[in-house]
Design goal:
Blueprint: H1 2-15, H2 25-35, H3 39-57, H4 62-81, H5 90-112, H6 120-174
Helix pairs in contact: 1-3, 2-3, 2-4, 2-5, 2-6, 3-4, 4-5, 5-6
Length: 175
Amino acid sequence: MIYYLLILLGFVTRFLPHPANFTAIGAIALFSGYYLKNKKLAFALPMAIMLLSDWKLGFYQWQLLASVYLSFAFVVLLGTFIQKKKWFFSFPASLLSTVVFFLVTNWAVWQFTPWYPHNYAGLIACYASGLPFIKNSFMGDLIYTFGLFSAAQLAILVAKKTKSKLSFILVGNKA
C-alpha cells in the first residue's frame, strides 16, 4: 500500500502546478532508502516515478536525464546510509541531497549543453543561474521529508502502542 501512496505523491507533485523543483521525488528517494527493506525496490521506486512521469512530461537530453536519475540514486543510497541512525537524521540528509542534486545536475548542464562556455567562468555562471531553483529544492525536499518521515514515525508509534495494549489485554485474559 505504501508503494502506491509514494508513487501517487511523486506523480501528483510533478504534474500539479508547483514552483520549479518543488516536488516530493527527493524526499521519496530518501524515505525509500531509509524505510524500505527491499533495497532493489527502494532504488526502483523513485526511478519508476521519474521514468513514467518523464515519459508523460517529455524526455530531454540523455546526459541531463542521467544526471537527474543518478542524483536520485545517490539520495536513496544516502537514505540507506542513515538507516542505522535516528529518523531525524533525515533532515540534514535532505539538505545534503539537495546540494548534491544541485551540483551534479548543474554540472551536467554546463558540461553537456552549449548554454554556457566550457570554462571556469561558464561553470560559475551555470551554478549562479541555478541558485533560484535550489531555494525551491531545499523547501520542497525539507517539507516533503518532514511529512513523509513524520507520518512514518507516527504510524510506527501508533503500531507500537496498539501492539503493547493488545499484548497487555491478551496477557490479562490469560492470567
